[in-house]
Amino acid sequence: MSEPISPPSPDTRVHLSPQNEALRVELHGAWRITETRPSWPALIEGQTPGRVKLVWGRLGDWDSSLLLFVYEVRQWCRVKGVQCDFVDLPDALQKLLQQLEVVNETRMPVDRSRDFLSMLGFAAQDVWAKTKEIATFVGECVISATGLIKKPHKFRLRDCLDEMQQCGAMALPIVSLISLLTGLIMAYQSAVLMRQFGADIYVADAVGLVMVREMGAMMTAIILAGRTGAAFAATLGNMRAGEEIDALQTLGIRPVDFLVLPRLVALGLMMPLLALYANSLGILGGMIVSLGVLDIPPSAYWVETLTAIDLSDITTGLIKASAFGLLVGLAGCHSGLRAERSAAGVGRATTSAVVMGLLLIIVADALFAVTFNVLGW
């Protein structure tokens, strides 16, 4: 038994025909974008069939109005968990529908009918899947590094040197500015507190220890996560979108060997050097504030800094810097190699690289803090 339902446009008609647990939807008339098209939620209100089948009826001229209606039906079926059958629709309409879904895939409506525990479970599954994916990528990098140690002549030294220049020498201006300002800020804040107790000279101890053990490596890693990690993701994402990575795999060349390892080695080598440079500028910034605000001579400031800092403090900062560099490189390369093959996918990969890099830096720094405290460093 057919139940005709007429939308506001007189030329557009939709017939809903229940068939057991399925719902047959026949499309008739002319569909024009200039007319008001039917609203699927209004047509299906109060019904939840087990399957929805769209049938090509007596249609006249149609344009994107029909495409949007069919897309609305498919999205409703996905949200409600209803099977949809669009086999009878023309191939041209199905191709247009696939293109529309690709464009709007990130705008997929979320099923709000799930309870909190269900949403928590799905989120946990997603986190576990991403964790396994990252662990697999790290394993591939370790295997490739082991293979290149056995056959060092296969390592692309020229690419590594180019990346060292990009992530090292080219990053000096921004690292210089941030490190100097960090030292200035810490010294000024410490000076306000120390002056109350007549312990002005201990500003050198505070700035030196904080810069060498923590802030030098941390600030440098954060800068490189936003600068170099994002660049790695964008470069590899564009190569993936342009099918260059597929071409390497076709030639029997592993992308991890060819693209990832030179970048990881470059970051791992340059990060400690940049951290030492950042430490020096941070201490210089503290010296400038101490001279201008506390009237402490640079020679006295430097002597006090040397008494506060020993080799274990410097080693701690260098270990953190090397680890942070590898983590930033891993985050950038992993996001780039897993990027979607589109401009939007490259953008999302770049954002993911920065966010993942910062997250890994913070987590690693917390683990280092606990480890060094246990070891008494």
Walk me through the structure.
With 377 residues, the chain is of the alpha/beta class. The chain has two domains: 3-107, Transcription Regulator spoIIAA (2-Layer Sandwich), CATH 3.30.750; 136-375, no CATH class. It has twelve helices and five strands. It has a five-stranded mixed β-sheet with strand order 1-2-3-4-5, with helices on one face. Helix 6 (172-194) runs antiparallel to helix 7 and helix 6 packs parallel to helix 9 (255-293). The radius of gyration is 30 Å and the shape is elongated. The model is unreliable at 1-10 and 106-110 (pLDDT under 50).
Fold topology:
Elements: E1 3-5, E2 12-19, E3 22-31, H1 40-43, E4 51-62, H2 64-80, E5 83-85, H3 91-103, H4 116-150, H5 157-167, H6 172-194, H7 203-241, H8 244-250, H9 255-293, H10 298-308, H11 311-337, H12 343-375
Helix pairs in contact: 2-3, 4-9, 5-9, 6-7, 6-9, 7-9, 7-10, 7-11, 7-12, 9-10, 9-11, 11-12
Q: Keywords, please?
A:
single chain; 377 residues; alpha/beta; Transcription Regulator spoIIAA; 2 domains; five-stranded mixed β-sheet; 12 helices; 5 strands; disordered N terminus
What string, H for helix and E for strand, traces the elements in order?
EEEHEHEHHHHHHHHHH
What would you call the shape?
elongated
Strand order of the largest sheet: 1-2-3-4-5
Largest sheet: 5 strands, mixed
Strand content: 5-15%
| Helical content band | 55-70%
Low-confidence stretches: 1-10, 106-110
The helix/strand class is alpha/beta
Total strands: 5
Global Rg? 30 Å
Total helices: the number is 12
Give the N-terminus to C-terminus distance in angstroms.
Answer: 82 Å
Q: What is the residue-mean pLDDT, rounded to a whole number?
A: 84
* Total number of distinct structural domains: 2
